[in-house]
Amino acid sequence: MHAVKEDDYELMRAIAKERDERAFAALYDRHSGLVFTLCLRVLHDKAEAEDLLIDVFYELWEKADRYDPSRGSPTTYLATLARSRAIDRLRSKSSRSVGATITLVRDDHPAPTADPSQQTADAERRSIVTTALQQLDPAQRQAIESAYYDGLSHSEIAAKLNKPLGTVKTWIRTGLIRLRDSLRSQYEETTTP
Known about the structure:
The protein has 2 domains: about 1-105, Orthogonal Bundle (Rna Polymerase Sigma Factor, Chain: A); about 115-193, Arc Repressor Mutant, subunit A, CATH 1.10.10.10. It is about 70% helix and about 0% strand. It is built from 8 helices and no strands.
């Protein structure tokens, strides 16, 4: 029988309030694959993604008190932090290399890990997220993928899709709400005996 895992919210509280290294290690082990994959999708450079993975978790450790559980889950917080820092890094890199063409490829590279059970869990999470994305309205899915996988701003997505900015923001917001609800129900189905 598996030991009961600590809740991500409990781990975040322990990191912020008690500077608990064990809680930090558990959160890293649980979510480093997701963070690495998000960084890699935006940066398309394994070394840069590995570097950023370390930076994201360093920032989490140093500024754990910034996390607000009322605004989303720890997973959402980490994903948003990773995406934001990856886009910052990408923009910084492109501004340094004027005229350089940056190609973003959606490539599902699992994070480097020696633990087969972690690789299986990561693959299962990716499958669940992919299924939930496929259930979205095509316009919502395209807007969300452009934002999270391609690293585009809302204005850039509006220009790309030739749609008003308000429409794109609505698609992203309602798509993320539907995605959250879908993921929550899928999670509940997999954890209910």
